[in-house]
Structure formats: structure tokens, C-alpha cells
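Q: May I have one protein plus its fold?
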Amino acid sequence: KQWYQRRVAITAGELVNIADKGSISATSTGWGGVASRAIDGRTDGQWGKGSCYHSSQAKGGKLTLSLPGEELGATWPVQSISVFNRLDLCCDQRIQGVEVWLDEHMCGALTFVEGQHEYTVDCEGKMGSTVTVYHPTQYLQVCELRVFVDASYKPDIPSFVNVAKEGEATTTSVGWGGVASRVKDGNTNGYWSGGSCSHSGNAGNNRVTVTLPYSDIGIKYPVSAVRVYNRLDTCCDQRIDNVSRADI
């Protein structure tokens, strides 16, 4: 299935939320509050309802949302970003100081208001492809994230399709449960806890091979590009150095 087939229903002159069409990841997950909850379409602020993201880090937690087409260079004119806060009285004040970024531009920092559920920052229509919600001093809790763009805007996106997902992945070794199939599962989450990164069992001379669909009957593809998503945990992100080539 081609990602660009997932279209946003639009009406000219309106703003639409595109967050739920993107891909989200987090630096950590606490108490079962996975990142995907932040774009599940539910704004319920009560923890017991199961719709809020929660970091395991007491400070420095980050949610990263790649907007639709980010992997192909698409950017969007973001008008505003809304963050829905957790409403449990134990924890609602933790939103104080949360920073909301569009690429390298900080759209705003949030100030806690008792009883307020939705906090909105103005991004002034700046072009961007990645939204980051970051808390430098407290646990990060987000019950919904919405990114609003002009509904009439259509990004210039090449009509490429990812054929790796339909292929077969193998590897020379597997370590820590990081099986080869993770490299083509459609999930670009770069954090190990997200369960979507492959990991070799050997410290050197490792290879992952993706055999494209129908190669066994001689089908070949005009490959325009190969994109590799790195692990983002700071312990290990530098290991991508000297990954030398993709053989096609």
C-alpha cells in the first residue's frame, strides 16, 4: 500500500489536523503510556481512560512526530499545534514549561492553567516536516497532539512507493531480540524500547539483506533511493558510522 494513498479529507479555506497521518516516536515510555496514544484521535485527559502518552524519564522526555511525507522531503505550512494535557489533579501541572518545536523553530512554551485541557501554540505558517514536544524539567504527558495546516495545501511529493515492506528480510545474526523483519515493518521509531529496530548479534561484519518481492521469478525494480533509519538512543546512535553501502 502506497503511503500517499492515505489522503486527508479537505475543504478549501479550512484548517485540518494532519498529526494522525504521521509517524510518532518517544525517547521513553512509562506506565504503558505508549507514544501512539498521542495521535489516536482521543483527547480524554484522565489517565485511566488509556489515551495519554507518559515518559519514563522525570525530565528530558521527547515526543517526535514525523508529518506525512517527511521521509520523501515533504514539508507543511503549520499554522498551529495543540497539546491536550492530562487532567488528573496529581499531575496536570507537569505541563508547565513543555516546549513545542517545528523542525528548528520553537513555536512556544506552555504555561500551566488550572483546569485547561487544550494548549495551542502559533507556528505562523512556517514550513516544516517534524514536530517535537519536549519537557526539560518534568515527566512528559500528552493526551493528544494535533498539527493544523491549511486544508488547500498540497505538498510536492514524488510518487514513490516503498517496496521493501513486501520483501523478505534476513540477517547474518540477531541480538537482543532485534530480528531482521523489524527493518521493514513500516515503523520508523528509532528508540530501542519501541520494538522496531533490528540488532545484530555480532560486533562486526554484519549484513541485513532485503530481497524485493518476486525476485525469485526474475522481477527487477528501478530503485530511486534507499533510506536507512538509524537507532536514536544516545548510547548507540553513533554505531551507524562506517555502514558503507547498499548493494542493489
